[in-house]
Design a protein that fits this description.
The protein is mainly beta. It is about 0% helix and about 55% strand. It has one helix and 24 strands. The longest helix is centred in the C-terminal third of the chain and has 6 residues, at about 260-265.
């Protein structure tokens, strides 16, 4: 039986966006609503907190030092020494009700991040911060931009707009960052919760976090079949990422947002950062931003 460990009893309001820095051997993650970025060092067990003035949806390491973050007011560089942030560009300055949500770097070092429309209209989008600091819209008519990941061979891009309950596969061109030919490949049943964050393992299988579903699940993108699931002692599972020296630790973020008193009593560890050490599955190194 797979053992799940509560790494940090953070009681995060909206824990999200785990991103493993393979070079520094630390995990970046965020509490969106509390406007915090965390840097967790498994060796020392220290979880550094960076307090911001804006909500971070996603954060990734930048080659040469520092971080790049997608905040509720656009893409920013963050200096880890001063903890100050510097605005790069806000592609949705004209839509103050939107904020950035999940994001990752592609194999070429571009930072992709999408927005969420809190009014639940299709007024959000997925954007790409290129290495020349230009920002391009990749997908429009989005409601809640969430899980995103690239195949190990760099041929495909996988994407979740949460309310659709689907994973969509795009043909991906690494040289230009172009995506085309969207195809629905996975449908998550409503009774399993809503598909949220996503990652991929070295076998090319997708791992999906289930908001309201108390689990993460493993899927075959070639067949659309679910092949494994791991129960998590929290209701709202937001995302997952492989980390550790051997990339066989699956870190899982969770949230307390939207839970009533009974649910909080049933799931006292909600909002925690969890870890599952795998014996038979490993992840692949994630990319840093190269701009």
């Amino acid at each position: 039986m797979t053992q799940i460990e509560l790494v940090i009893d953070a009681k995060a309001t909206l824990g999200e966006g785990p991103s493993w820095d393979h070079e520094k051997q630390v995990l970046y993650w965020v509490d969106i609503l509390e406007k915090q970025i965390f840097i967790y060092d498994p060796e020392s067990k220290y979880n550094r907190t960076i307090q911001l003035d804006h909500m971070p949806g996603a954060v990734v390491p930048r080659e040469g030092g520092g971080l790049v973050a997608a905040l509720d007011n656009g893409f920013h560089f963050i200096d880890l020494d001063t903890e100050k942030n510097h605005l790069i560009h806000d592609p949705e300055e004209q839509i103050p009700t939107n904020r950035f949500n999940d994001g990752k770097c592609d194999p070429a070092g571009r930072f992709w991040a999408g927005t969420i429309d809190e009014s639940r209209d299709k007024n959000a989008a997925l954007y790409c911060l290129d290495t020349d600091l230009s920002v391009n819209e990749k997908i429009d008519d989005v409601t809640n931009s969430n899980g995103l990941i690239w195949s190990f061979d760099h041929d495909y891009f996988y994407y979740i707009d949460t309310p659709t309950q689907k994973v969509v596969r795009y043909d991906y061109e690494m040289k230009t960052g172009a995506i085309k030919n969207p195809m629905d490949i996975i449908v998550v049943p409503d009774e399993q919760g809503k598909p949220d964050g996503m990652t991929i393992d070295a076998d090319g299988m997708l791992w999906i976090a289930h908001w309201g579903g108390s689990k993460v699940s493993r899927w075959n993108p070639s067949t659309g079949d679910q092949i494994r699931e791991i129960a998590v002692p929290a209701l709202n599972i937001t995302s997952c990422a492989f980390g550790g020296k051997d990339l066989n630790d699956l870190y899982i973020t969770t949230a307390r947002k939207g839970m009533n008193e009974e649910q909080l009593s049933d799931f006292p560890m909600a909002g925690g950062l969890f870890k599952v050490t795998m014996e038979d599955v490993k992840g692949i190194p994630s990319s840093s931003y190269r701009g």
